[in-house]
Amino acid sequence: MNPAGIPAAAPGGSAEKTRPEIRYIVFDLEWNQSSGGRDGEVPGMPFEIIEIGAVKLDQNLREIGEFTRFVRPAVYQKLHFKVLEIMQVGMEELKTRGEPFPEVCREFLEWCLEKKEGEEIQPVFCTWGSMDLTELQRNMAYHGVENPFPSPLLYYDIQKLYNLLYENNSKNKLPLERAVEETGLQATDPFHRALDDARYTAEVMEHIDFDSVRAYLSLDYYRLPEKRSEEIYLVFPNYSKYVSRCFETREEALGDKTVSDMICWRCNRMLHKKIRWFTVNQRNYYCLAVCPEHGPMRGKIRVRHAPAGGVYIVKTIKAADDAAVEKLLERREEMGERRKRKNRQTHLEEKRKRRRRSGAEEG
Ligand SMILES: [Zn+2]
């Protein structure tokens, strides 16, 4: 079982019949923002959802339903020029055809849930990029809609899977248009309307070798662990991911033993560090440890700002081949050089200051 508890697909041609029921909810949101820039931004609501579009797929990625609704704007009464330009929908149309967000959201959530023989089929959300689930929950919180999502909330970021398969795992934000074009799909409807984009995302999903990457679920970071017992530890086919609770400061976070521990993701051994945690830019930290059974492991810590203040840590541990070890050593050398340069500078400055001081005393 992978982290979401979704059983792996059965191999071979008979897979269709034996696959357990899954409902993939491939959705897309369109949102508006303050047309007056930062000054006009409403706290807690940078992006107001104005359209929800989704298609529902079964376990064989066949479309079995669609959902599309406009939301009547309640926060920003003017459309941002970019939104107007790409969506081709006016404020008047949104006001007449849209329904209040809480209503649309409840309808959407009800549509996502299906029951079979009295049992709920848990939906698995899929989006292009990592923003939609977060913004959906932010809008829910603003409007006081109860958040029904499990915690941790795992989903498929199809953009990430696409990059993993075809873009050498690049971190670039590949536009959906490009993926549609590259996959050779026919783009008959315009982009940037929620239902169309959801359907394009679903088509890309059907087109790629989804089975080979289905273990790579993404984690939504809108709701973070509040206490140690809620901290998240996920194991993927070739790495592990740990998400800490929130800490007040970076120092406090980095001083936490669970944060700094290196554990082999394959055998759960506590590992001995060959290179202790170091940083080049104060944002990413690296270290190298060795498992006696599974070889060198590279640790990476990212320090992230929590929406409610403070910081949290995302730590990944991954097997390190020779190239990865080499890169790590280079990085550490770079850090050493920087530190030396800085020390030399401080030393020179102090020397200069001392000289100036003694010069002033003499004169
Ligand atoms: Zn091991």
Task: Explain the overall architecture.
The protein has 363 residues and is an alpha+beta fold. It has 2 domains: 19-219, 2-Layer Sandwich (Nucleotidyltransferase, domain 5), CATH 3.30.420; 228-331, no CATH class. Helix content is 35%, strand content 25%. It has 12 helices and 14 strands. The strands form 3 sheets. The protein has a 6-stranded mixed sheet. It is globular and about 80 Å long. The chain starts with 14 loop residues before the first helix and ends with a helix. The structure holds zinc ion (ZN). Residues 264, 266-267, 269, 291, 293-294 line the site of zinc ion.
CATH class of the largest domain: Alpha Beta
Largest beta-sheet characterization: 6 strands, mixed
By CATH, the architecture of the largest domain is named: 2-Layer Sandwich
Please tally the helical runs, counting DSSP H or I stretches of 4 or more residues.
12
Rg estimate, integer Å = 25 Å
Per the CATH scheme, the topology name of the largest domain is Nucleotidyltransferase, domain 5
Number of strands: 14
Which range does the strand content fall in? Answer: 15-25%
* Overall 3D shape: globular
Give the structural class. Answer: alpha+beta
Topology order in helix (H) and strand (E) letters: HEEEHHHEEEHEHHHHEEEHHEEEEH
Say which CATH homologous superfamily of the largest domain is assigned: Ribonuclease H-like superfamily/Ribonuclease H
The percent of residues in helical segments reads: 25-40%
Which cofactor or ligand species appear?
zinc ion
The structural domain count equals 2
The largest sheet has its strands arranged as 3-2-1-6-7-8
What's the N-to-C terminus distance?
A: 79 Å
Whole-number mean pLDDT: 90
Low-confidence region ranges: 1-15
